[in-house]
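> Could you send the Polysaccharide export outer membrane protein prediction when you get a chance?

Sure thing. Input:
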Amino acid sequence: MSAVQPEYRLAPGDLLLFKVFQVDDLERQVRIDQNGHISLPLIGDVKAAGLGVGELEKLVAERYAAGYLQQPQVSVFVQESNGRRVTVTGAVDEPGIYPVIGANLTLQQAIAQAKGVSTVASRGNVIVFRTVNGQKMIARFDLTQIEKGANPDPEIYGGDIVVVYRSDARVWLRTMLELTPLVMVWRAYR
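Output:
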């Protein structure tokens, strides 16, 4: 599966970290409000929702350069993103929709957010569904090979759907163990 992801567009609720090179007093964590705005020292209100990170960096640098700093170098880091969520479903202990926290999320981390695979999971049959530029894509992964280090742990993007399929053999075995009384047969041997 291609690692191509369109630039993330900031959304209300996203938590951002702002840094201005060599101006420590302007370093801030700021959450985008419900109206899509943030407030920064000296420059005040800035519309952030709908912009890419690079666009916001440029806009904030221009605002600081307009009367406060000479050639400011602004960096913005997305620390939490409400707009980036991943669905983890199937044979996991807590299926659900989980936020992509930080810059990167791997397949194993996404499954860990769902409290791991269940006892009936088919570790070799994990499917990731993704839409890239309007085209639906699918990829199959083997968790056992990833855990051994034989295959890389793929990056998971906001909007991805992770499905851990169940193993019919494991379901059958679990059912048999639940339905069959435990019988121990001891035989004498010489």
